[in-house]
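A quick word before the example. In earlier lectures we treated sequence and structure as two separate objects. From today on, think of them as two lines of the same record. Here is TetR family transcriptional regulator written that way.
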Amino acid sequence: MQEKPPSGKGEKSVVRRQPAQQRSRERLDRILEVAQQLIAEKGSEHVRMSEIAELAEISIGSLYQYFPDKRAIVRTLAGLYAAESRRCVREALEAVQNRAQLLDAFASLVDQYYEIVLDKPVMRDISSALRSDKELTSIEIAESKACGALLAAAIRRVTPGADSKRVNALAFLIWQMGEETMRLAVAHKRGEGALLVDAYKRMSLRAIEEA
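And the structure line, produced from the sequence above:
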């Protein structure tokens, strides 16, 4: 059972306190570092707020000053991963100038993302948590839309005559299917997962080429 914050019910799962001073920022970084470590070891559903506070060497009251509940921590970590992912996608796709470069860039992004998910168990757990909570699911959908928009822009750049609405829908679908594929792939043995990712990549590349 998840521990409840001492301050009543019904609060939105958001970061309460935005650190303005260096010491506070370092404390927040430490909380997130400890949370990632525990989530990677045990899974988010088995981590308790009291454990995070103990390992971060702060009081449980201080922890609740930053995060109203564990879900807010997961949400913050998801946002950080999403921002870094989007930065990588933007850098890769904004450099694309022709169809061959686009296909190569997309294939490389898929391979990189799969390796990152395999190397960071915490990302897999956070991804599962996002799917089990309607509020948190919105983060993933928003990220798929943002990255899909970057892909759509690249497709239109190399295929000026493509229908914009169709391309936008296709790019969003490709990106959201990618998230689902990664979840499915990491639930299988590595060889089987790699085949699933390769199948997704080939289908997506074909759709991009035909856009």
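Notice the following. DSSP finds nine helices and no strands in the chain. We will return to this example when we discuss secondary structure assignment.
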